[in-house]
Write a structure and sequence with these properties.
Layout: H1 3-9, E1 15-25, E2 32-39, E3 43-48, E4 57-63, E5 70-81, E6 88-94, H2 99-115
Antiparallel strand pairs: 1-2, 1-4, 2-3, 3-6, 4-5, 5-6
């Protein structure tokens, strides 16, 4: 699929960001450590050293810079080798269960917007 087709299909802007996170599938005992690469109001993209299983419900815990850690429910929509060939890229769709979780998503996306540099690159944490 071309970049134009993908960007036209998206309803919300994505903001580049680098935050530590972990994903735990429902019923799993081990979480996958990962990094948030970009975020929108609908979901985000994760980068990890190991593939994250697709489908099913899971909990994402995010440690965003200067904000308190929070968690949100959702599902992993895809996982594939990233272009660099070293990491995996996964798409996470938010599935908030409460108005409080919806508010946490909006606050996080707004903070990502504010943390953008003038060139659109994330400021703050560097990629690990």
């Amino acid at each position: 699929m071309s970049f134009e087709a993908t960007s036209e299909r998206r309803k919300f802007d994505r903001f580049q960001i680098m935050d530590e996170a972990s994903v735990c599938k429902d019923g799993a005992t081990e979480a996958h450590n990962c990094e948030v690469v970009n975020v929108s109001l609908m979901g985000l993209q994760l980068r990890s050293e190991k593939p994250i299983p697709v489908g099913g419900s899971c909990v994402l815990k995010i440690a965003p810079g200067s904000q308190a850690e929070f968690q949100i429910r959702g599902e992993v929509r895809y996982t594939h080798k990233a272009e660099d060939g070293e990491f995996y890229s996964s798409g996470f769709r938010f599935v908030p269960e409460t108005a409080q979780q919806q508010g946490a998503i909006a606050k996080y996306v707004h903070s990502a917007f504010l943390r953008q540099g003038s060139d659109g690159a994330p400021s703050g944490k560097s990629a690990a």
